[in-house]
Amino acid sequence: MTTRTRTVATLLTSALVWMAGCGGAPSSEGTADAAGPTALVTATRLTPTQWPLTYEVTGTVRARTTAVISAKVMGYVREVPVRLGDRVPQGAVLVRLDARDLDAALRQAEAALEEAQSGVPEADNAVAAAKAGLELAQVTFRRMQDLFEKRSVSHQEYDEAVAKLRLAEANYEMAQARRRQLAWKIRQAEQALKAAAISRGYGEITAPFDGVITEKSVEPGILATPGAPLLVLEREGAYRLEAPVEESRLRDIRVGQTVRVEVEALGRSFEGRVSEITPAVDPAARSSLVKIDLPATPSLRSGLFGRAVFTVGRRPVLTVPASAIHERGQLSTVFVVDGGHARTRLVTLGRRQAEHVEVLSGLNAGDQVIAPVPTGLTDGVRVEVRS
User: Fold this and answer.
1) What is the mean pLDDT of residues 334-340?
2) What percent of the chain has pLDDT over 70?
3) Does pTM top 0.85 for this prediction?
4) Residue among 308, 296, 363, 354 nearest 43 (CA)
5) Is the dihedral of CA 354, 358, 364, 365 positive or negative?
6) For the residues 84-101, what does the mean pLDDT come to?
7) Burial class, 154, CB count within 10 angstroms (exposed 0-12 / middle 13-18 / buried 19+)
8) Residue 321 has pLDDT above 80, yes or no
9) pLDDT tens-digit profile of 47-63?
């Protein structure tokens, strides 16, 4: 016997064994089943059901709030009390700068304010003295005016009284002006002190909110310049999936829409909500960025891969319970009730949803599918459906 003949014989033998297991010899099994016991089974009659029509895109998990921490003043970094991955509360010190020049400016502003305030007693005394002189000049003028009307004083004496009154008025106005000028200088010194205090506060860079340090590019001794990134802080617990959506699909997506988001690294899915749709379309990728808010989850991190599943409609499908399916290698089969017997059907399966699986081919509406499959059930066995 040649090698080719032995190979063909082996294949035929395997096929016959498989057909025997699946009911491939109906004539002999039909005879056995007629005399054999009847199996009680539970069957589901297939009817079309509406399943959601979905559209999937991939994206990346990002923090909703991210702050790039930088210095507002130039200075050498003296201390960095945080490390990469640290969780910090709002107001915690992240970087300390060498602030000796800022300290000097603050002391100078304090001294200028003290100097301005020291002139207040003298200015107040000058105003009081000028007011007293004015009151005396007014009393003297009224007396001289009465005497002048009675022709008891000369024109020269009356004119001198008028001149003294006007001089007293000018002195009083000048004293008041100097007091107002001093008050303005004090306010100016107070504002300068506030500005110096604010600048001094820039020597300590603090966290603007509770978060986690995700990037760190600062070490003690480097020169920090305004605007240069030192740290990146992300608000923990507030993440979203950012995914590019094809321009042709944007009409099916709206703000507030509920979306199923699957994160493979965590092995779980979330229910997200569309919060933003970028109005501009990327001319190169022909897509717009859609941002989907995710629920607060401790295990979420920026940079994780995610998949967004949008529901864009409904479609009729035939489904069978997952317990009805028997898989052998690449083949999937189910048992149907046909003329009071269990018959094997090869099926092509589609998507799985909860405990049901979509059937693409092999079954028709109205078929009775056995589920769950009793142990030992084979093709051709007589069955009775439980009511």
Assistant:
1) 91
2) 90
3) no
4) 363
5) positive
6) 91
7) exposed
8) yes
9) 999 888 888 999 999 99
pLDDT above 70 (res 140): yes
Mean pLDDT of the chain: 86
Question: Residue 234: how many CB atoms within 10 A of its CB?
Answer: 21
Across residues 32-57, what is the average pLDDT?
A: 80
Over range 169-190, report the average pLDDT. 93
Q: Above 60 in pLDDT, residue 6?
A: no
Contact 282, 243 (CB under 8 A): no
pLDDT for residue 186 is more than 70: yes
Distances (CA, A) of 302 to 52, 73, 294, 299, 372: 30, 30, 12, 10, 43
Report the alpha-carbon distance of residue 308 to residue 116 in Å, rounded.
66
The two three-digit tokens of residue 64, written as one number: 């909703």
Tokens of 339: 């003329």
Residue 242 bridge partners (DSSP): 60, 291
Token duo for residue 78: 């003296």
Q: Which residue is it, tokens 């997952």?
A: 322
- Contact (CB, 8 A) for 334 and 324: yes
Q: Are 330 and 347 in contact (CB under 8 A)?
A: no
The mean pLDDT value for 302-320 works out to 90
